[in-house]
């Protein structure tokens, strides 16, 4: 038996699987994000610990015998979020999350201080990444920065709580912008150029390597065996890929979660920062090319709250019942700025075509389509960069909507693959890393595609209409860009 735990942005998810990777039990615990000021996004790491305790209690109650027989556990987590500990291993301040927009000034300083930053780190300087957040902390909260002894990512903090060991893996380190992707190590050039002490950064392991063992007190609390091996784990993008069997070059997936990730595995490091693509280390040996969009299912949830709708599922059902082609409205989904393809934390979203006749169902469909158009832009850039993906898999909460999947398939103009329990991809990937680390088996033996998949096909009669609407989507971007550049007037 194996456990996989995913520390997400809005919830922690856990699964219990047997040696055949059959899911025996699953659990989810939601938590809130603090927004102390516009553009800021934080979480108390204690929320993650409480959520882990909650989900494991559910698994234990659901399958007590199987839970007691767990042989190893693995972890997955939200990328980029800055967790800081002092010399006593106490949390210095709330974690600054990946979708926090502070750090724009620091990004400019980073680019000037380290001219080869993008080539070394695999991506242009952006506020989403850990480096900009750490520099912001140093410049704006120096009394707190001076206390920092350890810099971790979200899942690393949870693993520290479980084992008492400080560590991180290549894929999460790859998302900090402090990492040399080609050499798979912390970058002396970046750390020295930014004046960051190497001692702050954790030791690095591959995602499947055992990073520690369950502390007796925590084991007793959770109902697991003391000394249980805990795999280092990986960033949710990498673990989601392993959960879908995306380790071989050319295999890939689209994660339609809070944000959107479009992933294609590679066997080499081939950065394309000029295309606002990310080239990062995988959580197993290898690399991947990735487009990252900050606004995915979160945009639909925002629309739900804006319209005072309690149940997002009911809203989507109304869209499904009335769907007859593209919405009469156009939505540009840049509520939290954007990474791919614009690399601009200051741009904001917009609706076009609103009228007195516009209804919540029109707005909801336009949001779904706007996200799909953004994904098509990413698809074109990945193809241009030499990393096409013939049939991407679909995971994430948004993938549970068949209509949204078919709209995306239509916008892309080709079939997609949707898997059972698609939202558990990172959790399954974490469990698979634990299996590899504990059993010493080869990655290819464990990281196989799911047995059951559903082919998602386009609305063939709508492809041409969506092609025209996509051109309109791109043509409207200068309007939001110009507005954002003058939003302080």
UniProtKB/TrEMBL annotation:
Coiled-coil residue windows:
none
| Alphabetized Gene3D superfamilies for the sequence | 3.30.420.40
Q: Does the keyword Kinase apply?
A: yes
| Residues the record marks as site: Important for activity | 6
EC no. given is: 2.7.1.17
Q: Does the keyword ATP-binding apply?
A: yes
Task: Name the catalytic site residues.
Answer: 236
User: PROSITE patterns attached here?
Assistant: FGGY_KINASES_1, FGGY_KINASES_2
The lineage's top-level taxon is Bacteria
Q: Which Pfam families match?
A: FGGY_C, FGGY_N
- Reaction it catalyzes: D-xylulose + ATP = D-xylulose 5-phosphate + ADP + H(+)
Keywords, comma-separated and alphabetical: ATP-binding, Carbohydrate metabolism, Kinase, Nucleotide-binding, Transferase, Xylose metabolism
Residues bound to substrate: 79-80
Q: Which SUPFAM superfamilies match?
A: Actin-like ATPase domain (SSF53067)
Concerning its family, UniProt says:
Belongs to the FGGY kinase family.
Function comment: Catalyzes the phosphorylation of D-xylulose to D-xylulose 5-phosphate.
This one is known as: Xylulose kinase
List the source organism: Kaistia defluvii
Q: Which taxonomic lineage does the organism of this UniProt entry have?
A: Bacteria, Pseudomonadati, Pseudomonadota, Alphaproteobacteria, Hyphomicrobiales
């Amino acid at each position: 038996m194996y456990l996989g735990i995913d520390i997400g942005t809005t919830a922690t998810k856990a699964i219990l699987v047997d040696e055949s990777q059959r899911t025996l039990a699953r659990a989810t615990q939601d938590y809130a994000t603090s927004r102390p000021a516009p553009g800021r996004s934080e979480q108390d790491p204690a929320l993650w610990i409480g959520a882990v305790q909650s989900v494991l209690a559910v698994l234990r109650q659901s399958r007590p015998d199987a839970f007691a027989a767990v042989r190893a556990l693995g972890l997955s987590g939200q990328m980029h979020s800055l967790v800081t500990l002092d010399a006593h291993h106490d949390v210095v301040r709330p974690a600054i999350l990946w979708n926090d927009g502070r750090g724009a000034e620091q990004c400019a300083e980073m680019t000037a201080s380290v001219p080869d930053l993008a080539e070394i780190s695999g991506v242009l300087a952006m506020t989403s990444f850990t480096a900009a957040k750490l520099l912001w902390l140093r410049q704006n909260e120096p009394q707190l920065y001076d206390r920092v002894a350890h810099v971790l990512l979200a899942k690393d903090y949870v693993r520290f709580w479980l084992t008492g060991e400080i560590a991180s893996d290549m894929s999460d380190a790859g998302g900090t912008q402090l990492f040399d992707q080609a050499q798979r190590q912390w970058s002396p050039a970046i750390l020295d150029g930014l004046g960051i002490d190497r001692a702050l950064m954790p030791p690095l392991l591959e995602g499947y390597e055992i990073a520690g063992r369950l502390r007796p007190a925590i084991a007793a609390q959770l109902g697991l065996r003391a000394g249980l091996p805990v795999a280092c784990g990986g960033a949710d993008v990498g673990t989601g890929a392993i959960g879908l069997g995306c380790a071989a070059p050319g295999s890939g997936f689209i994660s339609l979660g809070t944000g959107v990730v479009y992933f294609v595995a590679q066997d080499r490091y081939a950065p394309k920062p000029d295309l606002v693509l990310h080239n990062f280390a995988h959580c197993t040996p290898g690399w991947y090319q990735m487009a990252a969009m900050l606004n995915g299912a979160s945009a639909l949830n925002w629309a739900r709250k804006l319209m005072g709708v309690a149940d997002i599922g009911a809203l989507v059902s109304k869209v499904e019942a009335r769907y007859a082609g593209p919405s009469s409205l156009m939505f540009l989904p840049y509520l939290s700025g954007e990474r791919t393809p614009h690399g601009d934390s200051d741009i904001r979203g917009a609706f076009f075509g609103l009228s007195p006749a516009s209804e919540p169902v029109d707005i909801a469909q336009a949001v779904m389509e706007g996200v799909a158009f953004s994904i098509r832009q990413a698809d074109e850039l990945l193809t241009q960069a030499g990393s096409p993906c013939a049939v991407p898999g679909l995971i994430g909460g948004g993938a549970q909507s068949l209509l949204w999947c078919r709209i995306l398939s239509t916008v892309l103009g080709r079939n997609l693959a949707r898997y059972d329990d698609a939202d558990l991809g990172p959790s399954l990937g974490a469990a698979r890393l634990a299996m590899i680390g504990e059993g010493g088996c080869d990655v290819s033996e464990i990281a196989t595609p799911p047995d059951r998949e559903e082919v998602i096909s386009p609305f063939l009669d709508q492809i041409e209409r969506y092609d025209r609407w996509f051109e309109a989507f791109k043509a409207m971007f200068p309007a939001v860009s110009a507005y954002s550049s003058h939003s302080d007037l």
